[in-house]
Amino acid sequence: MFEPESPTTSGRSTPFHDFETDQQLEDNSTDSESVQNDDLNVDKYVSKPFMKPCPYANDVQALEELEACDYTQRITYEMACSGQTKRRVRIYADGIYDLFHQGHARQLMQAKNLFPNVYLLVGVCSTELTLKMKGRTVMNGLERYEAVRHCRYVDEVVANAPWTLTDEFLKEHKIDFVAHDDIPYSGAGGVGDIYAHLKERGMFVATERTPGVSTSDIVARIVKDYDLFVRRNLARGYTAKELNVSFLSEKKFRLQNKIDELKNRGRRVKVDLLTRWEAKSRDLMKAFLQAFGRERLFSIWRESKGKIMSAWGSNTSLAEESYIDSDQDDSEDEYMDAMSDSGSLKEVHAAAADNANNSSRSSSLPDVGPEHF
CB of 176 within 8 A of CB of 90? Predict the structure, then answer.
C-alpha cells in the first residue's frame, strides 16, 4: 500500500516505492527483450521511448538526469525559444490530475512543446494536501501518480508535490520554467495567485485549458446519472455497502433492474417473432412465385388454352352431327306427311308401279336417233 515518507527540507515528500518489484519487472522485460532480439533482431526497438512509464523523481534514472543538469547555466525565455541551449530545458507543471482525462493530457502536451529539447517534470499533489486545499478526490494519490506517469509527454513525476512553489523546491529540482494556465490560482485561504512571483521573475509560461472538459464536469455527469450508475454496478455484483446505498434504495434499484430485464426480454421475444414471421413470409412468397410466377402462369395459360380448344372442337363436331341427323329425320317426317296429304299409300304404290312399267318399256324400245326423223 502507498505510504508517503516524511517531507524533505524543501517541503516535498517522496512516495514509498517498491524498487524490488520494479527491478523484477525490469529483469523480466529484459529477458523477454533479449529473447526477441535473438529471434527477431529488433535491437532498434529496445531504445525507443514510451516502452515503459516515466520514473519518479527519486528513481535512479531521474536522479542521474538531475545530476547531469548544470543549473548554473540559467536559461532565459529567449534562449529557450531559440533552441540554443547547452542542456535540456526543465519545465515543471503541477496539478491534481484527478480522473486523468484529455484536458490534462493536452495541457501536458502543450508544456512539452513549449520549447525545443524540453524535459517535463509533473508534480502531483497528495490526497491529504488536496483535501485540505481544494476538496475530496475520486482517485487516491497512487492512482493519480500512475495515471500521469503513463502519459507519453511526461519525463518525470514528482509525487506529493507542494501547493506553493518555493525557491528551495525550484532549486532542488533545477526548474527553469513553470507551465500552467494563466488563470490566477489561489493559495491558502483562497486569496492571491500562487504563480504571481514566478510571473514577475519571467519563469512562468502559460498553457491553454481545454474548453468543455474538466474533472468537475465528469463528476457532474456521474452525479446526474447517479441512479443509472448505481443500478449498473448492482447488476455487476457490487454490494449496497460498497456503493453507499441504503437498504430501501437497493431494493428499489434492483426492482427497476428486474423490470428493465423483463422489458428487454419482451423486446427480444417480439423481435424473434417478427424475425420468424418475416422468414415464413419470404418462404410463402417464394412458394407462391414458384407456383404462380410469370412463367408458370404462361404455362398454365397454354395448357388451359389447349384444353379449351380441344374441348371446343369436339363440341362443334358433335353439334354438326346432331344437326345432320335432325335434318334427315325432319326430311323423312316431311316426306311421310306429304304422302299422307296426296293420297293413300296404295295410290302411292300404284303410281310407283306404273312408273316402273313405263321405265321397263322404254328401256326395251330401240334407240332412235335424230337421223331417223
Answer: yes
DSSP secondary structure of 88-155: -EEEEEEE--TT--HHHHHHHHHHHTSSSSEEEEEEE--HHHHHHHT---SS-HHHHHHHHHT-TT-S
Between the CA of residue 150 and those of 126, 157, 276, 314, what are the distances in Å?
18, 10, 51, 99
**pTM over 0.70, yes/no:** no
For residue 17, give the nearest of 60, 78, 74 by alpha carbon.
60
CA 168 from centroid of its chain's CA atoms:
53
The whole-number pLDDT of residue 167 equals 95
In DSSP terms, which residues pair with 178 in a beta bridge?
Answer: 92, 204
Q: What is the pLDDT of residue 66?
A: 96
Q: Which of 115, 140, 116 is nearest to 129 (CA)?
A: 140
Q: Is the dihedral of CA 28, 34, 40, 46 positive or negative?
A: positive
Q: Residues near 139 by Cβ (< 8 Å), separated by ≥ 6?
A: 98, 99, 100, 147
Q: Which run of H or E residues covers position 180?
A: strand 177-181
